[in-house]
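Study this chain:
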Amino acid sequence: MSTYILHVESRPASDEVLDEFNRWYEEVHLPEVVALDGFVSAVRYAPTAAGGRYITQYTIEGDPEQAVKNVTAAAADGRLHMSDTMSLDPVPRLQIMKVTKEYRP
């Protein structure tokens, strides 16, 4: 079975909602996404420069296109609780990547 990464870049809607954005993302969004079929785990990274994007990398096993469809369906039927603390302008960037090699010395 192939392993994929769903690479997501997002940011808070404003500096005023930063703490609420991070709390929602880490306590609500990550667990809800990882509970969906196809998702195995997630790692989230914070920017070190002001105004930078947060990055989340979700590990997917199986069909990555179906896993992303599962996210869309869950958002539409209310299984994912979205937050207006996440900026949609610009929209979060998503990219599916296939894991070709993992190296750990």
